[in-house]
Design goal:
This protein has 338 residues and is of the alpha+beta class. Helix content is 23%, strand content 31%. It folds into 2 domains: 105 residues, Sandwich (Immunoglobulin-like); 173 residues, Roll (C8orf32 fold). Strands 3-6-1-14 form a 4-stranded antiparallel sheet. β4 and β5 form a beta hairpin. The radius of gyration is 26 Å and the shape is globular. This is Transglutaminase.
């Protein structure tokens, strides 16, 4: 069993030419994977075309890598390309039963006028409602379908993940980026962002800290088909705080706990904190950008590039066929009279 996998991740966002230039734009990018104990970042970079902007790198309030893109030169069309090389290392996952009862964790996070550890204070940031994740009784009732009295915290988190995975349908047409959590709960349809928000909302509604994880997932092509470049997408999942173990992750869209197939960009309270690209544009026309994502094992990528270079070299070396000699024009012949 492999203990690590090296990946190349390419994320491209392209605003096509529209004939009306943008005069000013400010963008906030979360496109560089976070360096973690289980995720080693060998390299990462962002380029833009046309190259008329300024890139400033730093960290956001959650410690995620962030890039500010400023463009004050008129431009028609924009391509933002991020390329990263990371190695994901296998993690040891605790047994669901190896965690305290969920009620004791809820009680530990109730307000007490006393000093708290740094870990506790960090976890509290993910305990309350946020712009896209509400807390209320209806969501608490949904959570209690999985969190029965006295159940171990991690067993309850897995049960909630399984509940969403088994009773909700993945449907890219059912929701939009701003669809409320309660609509997802009612329709029982949505995408990874919806299911992550729903699981987080349910956990917080019963007093448990949970955060939104943003990144990528290695997908498999259809049997017998090659992996396509640009055919993947961003992914979202959930992390739950557990005393003694820290943050434990769950993917309700796929019903699994993230391991070697998940690449982490960063985390926040909800999607709004770690959106891959958002900003403000002055000028241009209303446009929907085209997003192309490639997640590929590095060994496969190297082999693919070698095959492509070989094919290109053979095409250049192949002699071009000579154009056929031009035949002399036929003499004019008068048609016989009637």
């Amino acid at each position: 069993m492999s203990q690590s996998v090296a990946y190349i991740v390419i994320h491209e966002t392209e605003y096509p030419h529209c004939g009306v230039p943008v005069s000013l734009a400010q963008h906030l990018l979360h496109l560089i994977p976070r360096a973690l104990p289980h995720q080693l970042r060998a390299s990462a970079g962002i380029t833009i075309a046309p190259d008329v902007g300024r890139l400033t790198h730093g960290e956001d309030a959650f410690g995620n890598p962030v890039t500010w893109l400023s463009l004050d030169t008129p431009h028609d069309g924009l391509l933002v390309r991020a390329e990263s090389h990371v190695t994901v290392v296998r993690r040891a996952l605790p047994a669901p039963a190896d965690s305290p009862p969920w009620e004791s964790v809820r009680e530990a996070f109730m307000y007490r006028p006393e000093p708290h550890s740094r870990e506790r204070l960090d976890a509290e940031r993910y305990l309350y409602a946020s712009p896209r994740v509400p807390r209320d009784a209806a969501l608490a009732d949904f959570a209690r379908q999985a969190f029965t009295p006295g159940l171990a915290l991690l067993a309850g988190a897995k049960a909630l993940m399984d509940l969403i995975f088994k009773t909700f349908t993945f449907d890219a047409e059912a929701t939009e980026v701003n669809t409320p959590v309660h609509d997802v709960l009612k329709r029982k349809r949505g995408v990874c962002q919806d299911f992550a928000h729903l699981m987080i909302a349910a956990l917080r509604s019963i007093g448990l800290p949970a955060r939104y994880m943003s990144g990528y997932l290695l997908t498999d092509p259809p049997p017998g088909k090659p992996r396509l470049v640009g055919a993947d997408a961003s992914h979202a999942w959930v992390a739950v705080w557990c005393p003694g173990h820290g943050w434990i992750e769950y993917d309700p869209t796929n019903g699994i706990q993230p391991d070697l197939r998940h690449v982490t960009l960063g985390w926040g309270r909800d999607f709004q904190d770690v959106s891959p690209l958002r900003g403000v544009i002055l000028g241009g026309l209303a446009q929907t950008p085209e997003v192309r994502v490639t997640v590929m094992p590095e060994a496969e990528w190297v082999e693919r590039q070698a095959q492509l270079e070989k094919a290109q070299a053979e095409a250049r070396a192949k002699p071009r066929a000579k154009a056929p000699a031009k035949l002399p024009a036929a003499p004019d012949v008068e048609a016989p009279e009637g």
